[in-house]
């Protein structure tokens, strides 16, 4: 009688074991399901061990990290999720564009310097497209200088600091 009872218990335990094993998804099945769910977010990988999903990789924002974790959590058979995904720092902003006025002044200054070098006793400065002339000049030399400077098309030629003889 004891043998019959022992056999029944062992068969019942074996049957229960087989049923419980069949109902639990295997790590490979969980891995496949989680990997499929994560395909929309490149750069993330998943590893499954004993029903625990470990996520790794890099994403550009917190929303992608959270979405990956949620996708793994809802997969059948997942006991827990370890989220090792890092959020990459945003790229640095581009350097500011060069100031157009400063660039234009630099080009104008180069042209002014090339002209003024032939007129001793006269100096010129450029700011905001305005050429400011200082020094001394004869009337005929000033006329030639003024024509040459006007050809550079500045906003204005200010000769208030120039003495004409």
Layout of helices and strands, plus pairs?
Blueprint lengths: L1 H22 L3 H11 L6 E6 L2 E8 L2 H12 L6 E8 L12 H17 L5 E6 L2 E8 L1 H12 L5 E9 L1
Parallel strand pairs: 2-3, 5-6
Antiparallel strand pairs: 1-2, 4-5
Summarize the biggest pleated sheet. 3 strands, mixed
Mean pLDDT: 82
In CATH's first tier, which class of the largest domain applies?
Answer: Alpha Beta
What's the helical proportion of residues?
Answer: 40-55%
Over all CA atoms, what is the radius of gyration?
A: 41 Å
Notes on the protein architecture:
The chain has 165 residues and is α/β, with parallel strands linked by helices. The protein has 2 domains: 26-92, Histidine-containing Protein, Chain: A (2-Layer Sandwich); 100-164, 2-Layer Sandwich (Alpha-Beta Plaits), CATH 3.30.70. The protein contains 5 helices and 6 strands; from the N terminus they run ααββαβαββαβ. The chain has helices spanning 2-23, 27-37, 62-73, 100-116, 139-150, and strands at residues 44-49, 52-59, 80-87, 122-127, 130-137, 156-164. It has a 3-stranded mixed sheet. The longest helix has 22 residues, at 2-23. It comes from Chitinophaga hostae. This is BON domain-containing protein.
């Amino acid at each position: 009688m004891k043998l019959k009872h022992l056999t029944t218990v062992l068969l019942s335990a074996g049957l229960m074991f087989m049923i419980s094993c069949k109902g639990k998804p295997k790590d490979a099945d969980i891995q496949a399901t989680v990997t499929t769910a994560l395909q929309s977010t490149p750069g993330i990988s998943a590893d499954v061990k004993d029903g625990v999903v470990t996520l790794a990789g890099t994403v550009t924002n917190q929303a992608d990290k959270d979405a990956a974790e949620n996708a793994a959590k809802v997969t059948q058979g997942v006991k827990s999720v370890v989220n090792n995904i890092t959020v990459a720092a945003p790229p640095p902003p581009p350097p500011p564009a060069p100031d157009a006025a400063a660039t234009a002044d630099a080009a104008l200054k180069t042209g002014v310097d090339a002209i003024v070098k032939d007129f001793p006793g006269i100096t010129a400065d450029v700011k905001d497209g305005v050429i400011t002339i200082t020094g001394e000049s004869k009337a005929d030399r000033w006329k030639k200088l003024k024509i040459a400077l006007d050809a550079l098309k500045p906003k204005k030629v200010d000769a208030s600091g120039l003495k004409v003889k």
